[in-house]
Every structure is written in C-alpha cells, then in structure tokens.
Amino acid sequence: MSLSEKPGIESAVDAEVNDPLTSTVLDDMDSTDNLGHGSSTNLLHENNQGEVDHATAQYNRAQSTLNPSSDLLIEEVSPYDNQHWSNDEDDDDDLEDADDMPDINLEGTNTYESKPEPELQPQIITDPTHAEGFVNARDHPDAVELPVQGELPGWLKGEHFTIGPGTYDIKFTRKIEVDGQLESATSTFTFGHWFDSLPLVNRFDFDGASNTITYRSRLTSKRLIEKIRDRHGYAPPHPAGLFKTDSNQTILVKFLKSATKASKPDCEPCAASISTYIPGVEGKLFAQNHANHLQELDPFDLKPTRIMCWNEINPAFKGYSASPNAQYDAVTGEWINYTMEVGYQSTRYHFFSLSDRDPKGTIIATVVADTSYVHSFALTPHYIILAVFPFTAQMAGVKYAWNESILDSFAFNDSNPTLFYVVSREGQQHIATYRANACFAFHHVNAFEDSNGGISIDIVTYPDDTIAHQLTTNNLRNPKLMSPAHLAKHEIRRFYLADVQEESINFFSNNALSTSSITGRASSVWSYVKNAVGRPKEVDIESDHQTASWAAAIPRAREEVLLDQPLELPQVNRSVKQRAYNFVWGLSVGPTGDANTEGKMWNCIVKANLNNKEVNASWSQPHCYPSEAYFIPRPSRGPDDIIDEDDGVLVSVVLDAQRASSFLLVLDANTMQSICRAELPQMVPMSFARSYSQVCK
Q1: N or C: lower Cβ tally within 10 Å for the chain?
Q2: Do 304 and 220 contact (CB within 8 A), yes or no?
C-alpha cells in the first residue's frame, strides 16, 4: 500500500467537513438539503443524543463560516491539516508505516486529492467551552520549530513527551436494508470515556540557549483504527482494555477472541502514561495502558516499534493489569510496579522491581486483596503501600474477566473501608494492613517515613467514584449534561500509618495468612480478624459507622486534610520524592464567569504549600484549559549551588477553546508567572495522562 501526505491547510469549512462526526451530517445535507430529513442511506450512528448535538453544533459552526449572519461565527480558517490514508487491502502488514490521520468515505475506498494551501490564521469561536478539546486530533509527524513568545531558561535543554487522546470517533460503512434493497450507510464508533480514546504522542525539544522549541506528534494506534473500522467496534482481548465504552460487539466475538496472537506494535492502545526509562532498555520511549501492555516507540519519529506484556520481561510478572504509574527510586536505581493476577473473588498484586543490574527483574512481594481499580501506589525508602479503595469488581470479577468496561463491572461500596497494605521492601513481604474511611482516588502525591516509625501517604481523594462517571465523552462534549453539575469534590488528604513495625508484630503474631479464605479481603487481613491480639473486640460505633464490622479490628490510619481546594494531576519536585516536602503543583478549578462551564473542568494551574494548607499562586487565562503541568527542576551548577524546592519550571499543553488551538506554556514554578509560550500547529486534545521530561544536566 502506498502512502503519501497531502500538504496544505484546509479552510474552516473543509476542516469541519472532514471531522469524523460532522462529515456524515454534511453528507446527509448534500442528499436532502435539510438536516434530519431525507434518505436513510447515510446514517449518523451515535451513542446518545448528546453526541448528535455535538455533531450538529460542529455542523452549524461550519455553516456559519459560509453565512456571516449566523450567531455562531468562525471568522478565520482552521489550522488543521487535511490528511487521509488509503486502505485497499485487508492485510495488516500494509498498515505498519501509515503516517496519516485515518478517514473513510461513503464509497468504501480512500483516495488523495490535492488542495491549495491557504494562509494559516487563527480560528475564533464566540461561545467556547472545554468541549472543543475532546475531538479527534491530527498528528504532525514531521518536526517543526514553534514560534516562541518569551524566553526559555538558558539551562532548559532536553525532551518533553506527552501522551493523551488522539482518536475518539471512527467512521465505518455498513449495509442496511431500505425498501428491500441493501444500501450503504455510515456509522460512527465512539470511545465513551476520556481514558479510552486512542493515543496521540507529542514530543517537544527545548533548547534554552537558542530559545527554540521543536515539535512533532504521532497517532500511535492506526492499525487498531482500521480493525475497529473493519469490525464496527472494539472488543479488547483482555480485561482493563476499556474504562467506559460500548464495544458494539456480540458476546460471541468476546468468546472467540484470541489473546495468544501477538499484537502488532500499533494495534494496542497505550495512552495512560509515557516514560523514557525502563531499566535494561536504552534509547527507547515507552507508553503504558491500564492493562499490562508496554508499547515501545522510537523516541525520534515516535513510531511504534514493539508491543509487549510484563510477563514477557519476566514470566513471574503475571496478570491482566498493571499500574500506568510506576515508581522510580533514584537512590537504589529500582523501577517498581505491580501486575494484577485476577482470580475468583480476589486478586494477587505482584510487586516487582527492575534495575540496570537486574533488567529481568524480581518479585518483591505479593498482596492478596479485592479486585479493585488501582491507578497508582506509594513508595518510601523501606516500604511499598498499596491503597485499595472500595471500588471493586462485581460478580466475583466475572464481568471484569469477560472484558466489560471497568465502570460496568466495578461498583463503589461506601460501607467498606479503604485498606492500606504495607509491604516491606527489605523483608519482601506484606507486613501490615491499615484501614481508613471509604474514598476513591487516581493519583498519589508523595509518601515518606518519619523518625517515629510512621508513614505519611498523601493522596488526591474523592468521596466516591462519581468523578470516574463524570469524565465520559458525552459529559465532556456536552457540559450541560454532566451530573452532578460540577466536578466531584476532591482534596489532598494525608493518611498516617503509625508504628508500622509494631503493627507488623501484631500482624504476624495474630496468625499467618489463611490459605483457605473465602474472599481476598479476608485473606489479607485474616490475621487481624481471627484472633485480634491487641486489637479492640467491639466496634466503636461512632468512629466506625461507615466501616464493615469485619474490619473493626484492623488498625486505623489517621486522616488529615492538607488542601481542601481542588487539585488533580499532582506534581512535586522529584528531589523530594519519599521525603517530607512543602510544595505541590497541579490542575484546579477556578471561576469562569459562565454558568455553563463553571466548575465542570480543570481550568487553572496552582501551586500549594501543604504546610500552610493553602494555594500560594496560580495561573489561568479565559477559555483556556491546561493538561498536566509537569515540573522540571533547575539543575545544580555545582556543590555550592543551593536549589530551592520550587526552583524550576512547569510545562503544560494548554487548550485555547476560543481559538480551537493549543499552545505550550512554560511557567516559573516559584511565581507561577508565564515566561514562555509557543503556539502549536494544530489543536491537541486535553489529556488526563502523565507526561515525562528528560532534561540534560
């Protein structure tokens, strides 16, 4: 299959016409001249009315360009490239080097057409919302130097990688019967959650000395896009493949799935995090998903080169899932993560470490607990702490094992506690368990030990799993539909595990872990419940009104709210990881002045002092929505150079909803003032995933 790129910038109308949602609507207009009436040969298949409304809004926006009298006016042209690829054969190997944004026409074949290149100008939207950031992206595989406004720090030299949504909607053709005749119709498969969309990887090269930033990007799951188009849906061959998406596949397809056939490098979506370092592997870039997949990318052109599972590195790393947020210990040189081996009513969390001296890795310990959604974990010099929230798999994990979406197979039970499983890194075993009130979380902030033998664990917590349901594609594209109307309340909460060594003595003296337990929770906390040496036998009704009676004997973690204002995607200076610290940066929710968008999306970057329990400074701009603000510390100039904890910069890709464009923002991490920004050649969708920087020292 031959591929070529079509150069040029299309007009705002053309950009909207080629949008995977809008194009079908416009096709209908061509044949009927009236939206919503006419032939059924061109159908727009949407998951719900909200997405139809989104498509209609985009259509109206395109029409307003033709009709200046419209209330919704796009005054200038879109910066999007119009790129297509052809698919004349079904052989997957023909797709390995595909570089262009996939699309399909109603005839079932795709061809190239050259168009003149108009002048690149900004697009102005008169009624902007963050919904502009949840559409398909076009990649930019060729490196381009960005126009820089401001001055980069002279010391900033290196690469910054981000990963996030690239493809939400995939059009496909199907046959329908109309008046006894088979005719072609166009439908759209839509990923239903922010966490499910197929990835776009971005690379930024900083050179502070020359004050330049170079950019390129790539869609890294193009083969999977073609498979979805061919099969009219997506049924992952493993659990944790989807967060909340209707697969549009029958149960027979799931039953006949084959997990033994090796995936192609661009046929497995890995969009949860990105990193440049896996011990034992040099010069590569790695993307991870919520399953146990690791996608290897070429760090220069961003092409996928290999896909593997953790058990291919070491057969002992068994399991369906793994954390996309591994922890690195700079002192020991260990890269630590876990895999989840899901069993009947319980799961084995296998914690393992990799290092340059041991690239095949070793198992540190295995914890048996409920099958829960665990996005991240805590690490200190001596301990690993697994927080298992009462958001657990239903039907003994059967639905989860049958590859249903996580939100369809898990449920939150506020009558059960949050459990903290403490693993000794030196002893390589589970040594204690603590409990706390029911809550839910995605991200840990930091964890550290104190001189009294306790552990502090700081987590961005939510009261329950509401936030996970609010981040569906439909809610994000239609802010008015979000329920509750505002993002779920979240705060930074510290959980203090006191006297860990003493509790470990109680843990083991109360009996060894039962090998015949009925449930995972009973297995891993059985030593407390069976004899409860040193533990109260009666439930304190006042302090345990939310706690299941079986957990009353487990020691309670002390809880303290460090910051009662919203903050997500937390960042700390990596030099204070596993240590007491002061500052945390992250995304927050500020006023917008618009009831339709107020409190519905993170729209500012804040700096908080956790010792003072307050936000010190923030950055925001009207109609702008940042993705993760990554902290890059200033490197040391020598042994006498004292570097403050907040001495560095924050880097974030920001959506400008009013201009339907994106820019790279560089902030002074101390003052939170903008020192530099660079406009990107196309809009980059908003991301909830982790980014990574590799800066020369």
Answers
A1: C
A2: yes
Query: What is the rounded CA–CA span in Å between residue 483 and residue 508?
Result: 46
Neighbour tally for 60: CB within 10 Å: 17
Whether residue 544 sits in one domain with residue 634: yes
The mean predicted confidence, pLDDT, of the chain is 79
The conformational region for residue 403 under phi > 0 = left, psi -120 to 50 = alpha, else beta, is left
Lowest mean pLDDT among 250-259, 349-358, 656-665: 250-259
Cβ neighbours for 181, distance < 8 A, ≥ 6 positions apart = none
Percentage of residues in the chain having pLDDT higher than 70? 72
* 584's tokens: 């945390």
Q: 220-279, pLDDT tens digit by residue?
A: 999 999 999 998 988 787 777 788 988 877 655 565 554 445 567 877 888 889 998 888
Instruction: Count Cβ neighbours within 10 Å for each residue of 602-614 and write b for 16 or more, e otherwise.
Output: bbbbbbbbbeeee
Q: What CATH number did the domain enclosing 274 receive?
A: 2.130.10
Question: Does residue 390 share a domain with residue 289?
Answer: yes
CA 685 to chain centre: 12
Instruction: Provide the residue range defining the domain that includes 84.
Output: 12-127
Across the strands, what pairs with 215?
Answer: 144, 204
pLDDT at 694: 75
Does residue 394 lie within any of the structural domains? yes
Split into its structural domains, the chain has a count of 2
* pTM for this prediction: 0.80
| 536 prior amide bond cis, ω within 30 | no
Tens-place pLDDT, residues 287-334: 998 888 889 999 999 999 999 899 999 999 998 889 999 999 999 999
266 domain residue, yes or no: yes
Q: Rounded to an integer, what distance in angstroms lies between the CA atom of residue 622 and that of residue 210?
A: 30
Whether 111 has a pLDDT exceeding 80, the answer reads no
State the DSSP string of 403-415.
Answer: T--HHHHEEE-TT
Domain membership flag for residue 132: no
Neighbour tally for 175: CB within 10 Å = 9
Rounded Cα distance between 355 and 23, Å, is 50
- Of 67, 102, 127, the residue that ends a domain is 127
Last residue of a domain, one of 77, 111, 127: 127
Residue 350 is assigned to a ligand binding site:
no
List the beta strands (DSSP E) in 323-417: 327-329, 334-343, 346-355, 358-369, 378-379, 383-388, 391-393, 410-412
3-12, 47-56, 338-347: the lowest-pLDDT one: 3-12
